[in-house]
Amino acid sequence: MDKTYVLDFASRLLGTDSPTGYTKKAIDLVADEAAALGYQTKRNNKGNLLIYVKGSSSEKTIGFCAHCDTLGLMVRSIKSNGMLAVTNIGGPIIPTLDGEYCRIHTRDGRVYTGTVLSCSPASHVYKDASTRKREVDEMEIRIDEVVKTKADVEALGICNGDFVAIDPKVQITESGFIKSRFLDDKISASALMGVLQHMKEHSITPAYDLIIMMSTYEEVGHGMSHIPECISELIAVDMGCIGLDLACSEQDVSICAKDSSGPYDYEMTSRLIELAKEKKLCYAVDIYPMYGSDVSAALRGGCDIRGALIGPGVHASHGMERTHYDGVENTMKLILAYIS
Predict the structure, then answer these.
(1) Per the omega criterion (within 30 degrees of 0), is the bond before 265 cis?
(2) What is the DSSP letter of 264?
(3) Separation CA 273–CA 101 (nearest Å)
(4) Strands 101-105 and 111-118
(5) 339, HSE (Cβ side, Cα atoms, 13 Å)
(6) Secondary structure of 101-168 in the HEC alphabet?
(7) What DSSP element (H or E) covers 67?
(8) In angstroms, rounded to a whole number, what is the distance separating the alpha carbons of residues 213 and 294?
(9) CA–CA separation, 307 vs 300, rounded Å?
(10) 218 assigned to active site
């Protein structure tokens, strides 16, 4: 696997703002990269990207999916003092956003920077600065422009409904750790691109036709609710959970046996476990207590598929996340083994 390629692409994708509903630039980035590798692509009406890979046999089609949308915020209203009230997009851990830098994207294409703050942000002023609840209704955005009134903000072109993207603060350490917000699920999208690059570089043809899909509404529950009818097996590549009594670490590829939506397909999951053993990969089999994937969305949408879920272990999901390149590489190797 080409580590440099995967990490470079991950850095670019993580650095592209894409809260759910504002994903075109991220999907453009993936589509351009897939085209540069020589793959045919298509987008469906909701903006999901489909990348087509011809296999040795067209007897069946296997789908793999990751999502390029992220958690975020949206401007709910403009306050009289020029601060912005917000609503959350998806389920970020709101207290972790206190003090985070952000970007406000207006409908006419302007971008402004700001900071997410508690409504009691100063310890020298507010008695409840450290105790006030960090809930979305108790947070606001300070814009990095000279604004003192609602009219000042409106003059910038900022309106209710504008998207707010949180700075991911991407760092890749010499020890192999990848630290960033939104590794869920951009690191898995990067792993899939790494597989595509490896297949092209080494002239690998999969056993069956593949469709690699990047969804745009996973964080709000309906990312892959509709997929091409030709797909009979769908594997979601999404972050593995870490914590409590779960076995997964950041160096592992996690194979999910069951999440909040129920058990994954027995035969597919069993085959993934056997392949991980056969290839001597670092892996874990886990049950995710509070989780749903794009396979779950496809099944709820009525798709007639069998489904499975794998992905690199990610620590502190929906907060300041971290994984390790080893976990990403183990994920890519498991995907390659499954499609061979």
Answers:
(1) no
(2) P
(3) 41
(4) antiparallel
(5) 29
(6) EEEEECCCCCEEEEEEEECCCCCCCCCCCCCCCCCHHHEEEEECCCCCCHHHHHHCCCCCCCEEEECC
(7) strand 57-67
(8) 10
(9) 12
(10) yes
Bridge partners of 178, per DSSP, are 172, 323
Instruction: Return left, alpha or beta for 76; rule: phi > 0 is left, psi -120 to 50 is alpha, else beta.
Output: alpha
What span, in angstroms and rounded, lies between the C-alpha atoms of 173 and 179?
Answer: 8
Nearest Cα to Cα of residue 239 among 300, 190, 174: 190
**Model pLDDT for residues 162-192, shown as the tens digit of each residue:** 999 999 999 999 999 999 999 999 999 999 9
Q: Which of 33, 218, 219, 321 is catalytic?
A: 218
Rounded (to 5) percent helix, strand, coil in the chain:
30, 30, 40
CA 9 – CA 33 distance, rounded (Å): 9
Q: Name residue, tokens 């993934």.
A: 272
- Write down the pTM of the prediction: 0.98
Do 229 and 44 touch, CB atoms closer than 8 A? no
- CA 45/CA 26 separation, integer angstroms: 16
- Domains identified in the chain and CATH numbers: 3-70+182-339 (3.40.630.10), 72-166 (2.40.30.40)
Q: Which tokens belong to 317?
A: 């999901």
Buried/exposed code over 150-165 (b: 16+ C-beta within 10 A; e: otherwise): bebbeebebeeebbbb
Locate 105 and state its tokens: 């994207």
- With 0-12 / 13-18 / 19 or more C-beta atoms within 10 angstroms meaning exposed / middle / buried, residue 41 is middle
Which of the four pLDDT bands, split at 50, 70 and 90, describes residue 76? very high
Confidence of residue 57 (pLDDT cuts 50, 70, 90): very high
104, β-bridge pairs: 112, 164
CA-CA distance, 309 to 65, in Å (whole number)?
Answer: 10
| Residue that is written with structure tokens 């939506």 in the block | 261
Phi, psi of 191 (to 5 degrees): -65, -40
